[in-house]
């Protein structure tokens, strides 16, 4: 595994592990013993960056993920970077498969959240603490002020923003320096590339969630793929609809061609593309499988030249592509 630095001093594995699916994903409950073993295996492979949140859990235990991750990684706490998030809860009264988010970043709620997360994670500090989503009712300067206090108190060492815009980043950073943003980013979700200049100006890292477009860019799905309606999130994600396979055919063909040229997999090419674009981008794909954990780690060893990345970008900018979960269709000219 290779490593890179977010801001000026937070060093993490070049590929991190998004842990959300280890407690729930696509309607199927996870085996805690197997997930605990998988997390230990990740550390053995060189993964040092693990991402969770206070709201990742199950209906029976809404905070299950932090408990699982904290317990599994406790023996390796001095070797890893733990990231978690505050500031939202889900509207469980909704009948939607993907429950609506309800933001809440009032200072008293943040303080209660950090104390609860520290307890569940079994640690005395959080390495990277994100505001999960902007709260329109609480000025970001007020949130940043709380983060500054928590850093002084030793409860967190760095903080970040998720799904942030340039204005929010600048306003927050002016109060308490931001270490990283965690925004959606993949070959199918490139709208935040406009943030690259400000991130470089302020020395802020970009942690990319859903870097494989919820698994679509692994190239493992086709029109025959079935997802259980009502429980499997992919059943309502636009990129997995049968018509989308045709719309994304050029993208899939590009991935398979590059994978063959580089003796890699489509998923590895998808991750290597963003790793080779900028030295401060760290993707955090999730998985429950050892072979995928190994596959994702291998992406850090694939080298794409600047010219190759530019050619990929040019191809992506002009090919037909379906909508992707979490955003709108990329404009094609």
Automatic annotation (TrEMBL):
This is Aldo/keto reductase. Pfam families: Aldo_ket_red. Gene3D superfamilies: NADP-dependent oxidoreductase domain. Signal peptide: none annotated. Residues 15-316 form the NADP-dependent oxidoreductase domain. Keywords: Oxidoreductase. It comes from the Bacteria. One of its GO terms (cellular component) is cytoplasm.
């Amino acid at each position: 595994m290779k490593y890179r630095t977010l801001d000026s001093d937070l060093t993490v594995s070049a590929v991190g592990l998004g842990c959300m699916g280890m407690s729930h994903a696509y309607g199927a409950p996870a085996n805690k013993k197997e997930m605990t073993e998988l997390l230990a295996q990740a550390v053995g492979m060189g993964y040092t960056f693990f991402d969770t949140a206070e709201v990742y859990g199950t209906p029976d235990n809404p905070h299950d993920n932090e408990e699982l991750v904290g317990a599994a990684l406790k023996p390796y706490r001095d070797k890893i970077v733990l990231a978690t998030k505050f500031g939202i809860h889900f509207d469980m009264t909704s009948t939607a498969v993907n429950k609506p988010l309800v933001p809440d970043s009032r200072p008293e709620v943040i303080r209660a959240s950090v104390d609860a997360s520290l307890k569940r994670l079994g640690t005395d500090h959080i390495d990277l603490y994100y505001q999960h989503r902007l709260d329109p009712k609480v000025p970001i300067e007020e949130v940043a002020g709380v983060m500054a206090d928590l850093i002084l108190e030793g409860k967190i060492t760095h903080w970040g923003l998720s799904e942030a815009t340039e204005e929010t980043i600048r306003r927050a950073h002016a109060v308490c320096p931001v270490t990283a943003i965690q925004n959606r980013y993949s070959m199918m979700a490139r709208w935040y590339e406009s943030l690259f200049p400000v991130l470089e100006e302020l020395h802020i890292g970009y942690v990319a969630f859903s870097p494989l477009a919820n698994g679509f860019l692994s190239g493992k799905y086709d029109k025959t793929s079935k997802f259980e309606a009502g429980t499997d999130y992919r059943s309502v994600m636009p990129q997995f609809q049968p018509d989308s396979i045709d719309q994304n055919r050029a993208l899939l063909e590009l991935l398979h061609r590059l994978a063959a040229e580089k003796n890699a997999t489509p998923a590895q090419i998808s991750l290597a593309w963003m790793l080779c674009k900028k030295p401060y981008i760290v993707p955090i794909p999730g998985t429950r499988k050892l072979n995928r954990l190994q596959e994702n780690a291998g992406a850090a060893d694939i080298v794409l030249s600047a010219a190759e990345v530019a050619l990929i970008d040019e191809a992506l900018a002009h090919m037909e592509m379906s909508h992707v979960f979490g955003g709108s269709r990329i404009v094609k000219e």
